[in-house]
Amino acid sequence: MLKRFVSLIVTASVLMLMACGCSSESRKTRGSNYLGRDTDFAFLTEETDEPVLDPGKPGKPNKPADLPKKVGISLPTKNLIRWSRDGELMKKELESAGFTVDLQYANNDTSIQESQIASMIASDCRILVIAPIDARSLNKVLNTPKSNEITVISYDRLILDTDAVDYYVSIDNYLIGTLQGLYIVNALDLDNTPGPYNLEIFAGDPGDNNGGFFFNGAMDVLRPYIDSGKLNILSGQKKYDDVTTLEWRTEQAQNRMEALIATYYSDGTTIDAVLCPNDTIALGVVNALQGTYTGKYPVITGADCDIANVKCIMASQQSMSVFKDSSIMAHRAAQMVQEIYDGKTVQVNDTSTYNNGAKTVPAFLVDSVVVDINNYETILIGGGIYTYNDLS
To answer: Which residues contact 110 (CB under 8 A, 6 or more apart)?
Structure first.
């Protein structure tokens, strides 16, 4: 475990210093086993060199003789840029390869997503790419008799508690948390200053499997400093179930942060850092600080590089965001669809980490990079993600 953790810190530190992702030749996967609601998110480690080829699930051949060239893509919402961008990227690439694509967004409503997926199955979409709104809500629709003939790619978020999932494409979510934790360590110079410093913790939606990976990655870095007393959590809220944020909502994060400020920091006590797993939650924290906090902005982490949050980084309100290049993830999902249709072995780089409660799902994980005030122009504008006008 120690050897593994040291390796993670070295890898993540290099990423932060060089502002670039690990190469496919050198990347090691990180993650944890199935994160059930009754667990304390104990971390189990595995290492897998890439690439690995997965031949598909026995009994479900990659290409049945009558497989239509039709794909269903189900994403949570069109209101977030990353989902609309991912959907359009996959649709464009698959249509250029001759597929008919049924792309639907579910407005963050699980019942709508279930209905849309049922419609895709009924209309002969024999390959589905699904980013679940609730990781446990799709068991019924994915376990119908007709769905047994369908290959399911879980996208970004792992679908839980069903063996209907064949592949998983995602960012290395444990690494995202690791990068966030390391950023706090470096920004506060925890190894060279006496402290103590005050930290508050936020986590993601309790129904999203990714939330546990983010949390574990960050806490495996920060926990030694918490245990030693160099990082204090005045609220005492440090267990995963105490800090989750329903549906990753900005408003809920803002309400909780305002309550924390009013209860523990209204006397002028400094907040030195706030661990936020993504940008919608970070935005809620920033909003709360703008309204009721009079001290210096703490170190605030995030992920996704949403436009509003990049503007916060430019204004020195949010410290960093982890850029998840979802275009790479969308491209890999489209390639998986093609490999499945062609009856080829499907390229994955992790075959042991992602147990969804019913099976271990072979996965392809994509790396990420830290973005802050020092490199946002190079990564986001130079990389063609945003223009200066977008951020003005």
So the answer is: 133, 134, 137
Residues contacting 198, CB < 8 A, separation 6+: 231, 232, 233, 234, 265, 269, 270, 271, 272, 273
Sign of CA dihedral 22, 25, 28, 34: positive
104 vs 1: which has the higher pLDDT: 104
Q: What is the pLDDT of residues 309-347, one digit of tens each?
A: 999 999 999 999 999 888 899 999 999 999 999 999 999
165 found inside a domain: yes
Same domain, 15 and 135: yes
Q: Do 9 and 116 sit in the same domain of this protein?
A: yes
The rounded distance, in Å, linking the Cα atoms of 278 and 330 is 19
Which DSSP helix (H) or strand (E) runs through 6? helix 2-18
Cβ contact 39:202 at 8 Å: no
Cβ within 8 Å of residue 299, ≥6 positions away: 183, 184, 187, 188, 272, 273, 274, 319
Say if residue 16 is in the same domain as residue 154.
yes
Residue 203 lies in a domain: yes
**Full domain range(s) for residue 261:** 173-323
Q: Residue count of the chain, please give it.
A: 392
Residues 367 and 358: beta-carbon distance below 8 Å: no
d(CA 315, CA 90): 33
Could you tell me the CATH number of the domain that includes residue 85?
A: 3.40.50.2300
